[in-house]
Design a protein that fits this description.
By secondary structure, this protein is α+β, with helices and mostly antiparallel strands. The protein is about 25% helix and about 25% strand.
Length: about 230
């Protein structure tokens, strides 16, 4: 076994004097190691690989950008409500009609006409004369036979409806949200979808859309009675 002697000690002193680190063993130097390490790092650095997750995310982002402008995107767009099919309105016919209203309409909407259709009539015979109430009718029947003007949704067409508030679904909404408790402007507007049976037409009925407002006319209008209704979910 080799042991360190005077020559080894002398070499160490000379190395310290020159400012170079002494080698731990003869014939081996550390001065070349940093260059070798740097060369190995530069030559062996791996090529970055795009991961599968990144590709999937990129594909999704691209689809989100391109699909809305493609024919497929137009097919997937949510469709709005279909317009009212007035071509199906005829005496005795049943057709689905969507109506927009607030519970205050129960008291606000009025019409005047001297014609009766299957027991249904406006609240007024003329602008100044009330229709005579049937003494045998209940005092409160949710206007079972009273015709009132309404607007279809979403196309705002005029339709006259008899007994809308007597339908169980609409009557329950009126019970839960009585217009006397809340100002009309603060009431929530809603839409009902009803299968309507059409009774006929009133020629030039007079219409009034609010208490204290003047009478107006929009020409002849269809009169219908609900068969069944449901609240449209927003």
């Amino acid at each position: 076994m080799a042991t360190s002697g005077p020559k080894s000690t002398e070499r160490t002193r000379k190395a310290v004097a020159r400012g170079t680190p002494p080698s731990s063993s003869p014939g081996k130097t550390r001065g070349n190691r940093p260059q070798a390490v740097r060369a190995r790092k530069q030559g062996d650095e791996p090529i970055p690989v795009v991961s599968g997750r990144f590709l999937i995310a990129a594909a999704l982002v691209g689809a989100m950008i391109l699909i809305p402008f493609s024919p497929l995107g137009r097919m997937l767009e949510p469709k709005g409500p279909s317009p009212t099919d007035v071509a199906r309105w005829a005496p005795g016919a049943v057709s689905e009609v969507k109506i927009t209203l607030v519970t205050a309409d129960y008291n606000l909407l009025t019409c005047a006409a001297d014609k009766e259709l299957e027991g249904a009539h406006c609240a007024y015979k003329s602008e100044t004369e009330l229709w005579q109430r049937d003494p045998s009718a209940p005092l409160d029947d949710n206007k079972q036979n009273i015709i009132q003007p309404y607007r279809t949704w979403p196309d705002n067409k005029l339709i006259l409806v008899a007994g809308l508030w007597a339908d169980p679904v609409v009557a329950m909404r009126l019970h839960r949200e009585p217009p006397q408790a809340v100002p009309a402007k603060k009431l929530a507007r809603f839409v009902v979808e009803c299968d309507m049976k059409f009774l006929g037409k009133l020629e030039t009925p007079r219409l009034r859309w609010g208490a204290g407002q003047g009478w107006m006319s929009e020409g002849s209008a269809w009169v219908a009675r609900p068969v069944s209704c449901k609240l449209r979910q927003s």
